[in-house]
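Every protein is a chain of amino acids, and every chain bends into a shape of its own. The fold becomes a row of whole numbers, each drawn from a learned catalogue of backbone shapes. The protein below has been through that process, and both of its lines are reproduced in full.
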Amino acid sequence: MGALILTGSPGVGKTSVARILAERSERSVHVEADYFFSFVRSGLIEPWDPASAEQNQLVMRVAAEAAARYAEAGYSTVFDGIVIPRWTLGVVREVLETAGLRPAYAVLRAPQPLCTARVQEREGNVDRFEPETLAAIGAEFDDLGALERCAIDVTAMSCEQAADAIEAARDAGVLWLDRD
């Protein structure tokens, strides 16, 4: 049994694609990691602030635990969030593997100006993210090393096509983390 970790720059289409993937299964869960940050009511450090590393590890661990419990119960599970290899992939992967799950990792990519425009179009996000912050987050997915095989360029794809590409790559064994 496995769980899909779906990630990429803000505005790349993670949540839209995750919804489609989850809706394709008879019994599924879409865990949106971003919501877990909103549970912190006091003392939240913005996740992109360098001082937030400990908080981010905790929040991602808690979100991954929720995903693991659903997957263990037989739900097809899509974990949607900004899961950066050098910052939070390790903790998410550890939680899923400790639960006996086989995680797959898919990184959606599109040009940063397109992603930035999408974020700025969203209601409530016009002032929250500076273009420089978005570019810095996006740059974390530019060079994935051994995980480059997990990157999918969705620039010219609809969300349905991106979901198809992810399923094809997972079925071909490309996205499984135990390959590295």
Q: What stands out?
A: Residues 2-179 form a domain with the Rossmann fold fold (CATH 3.40.50.300). The two ends are 18 Å apart (CA to CA). The first strand starts at residue 2 and ends at 8.
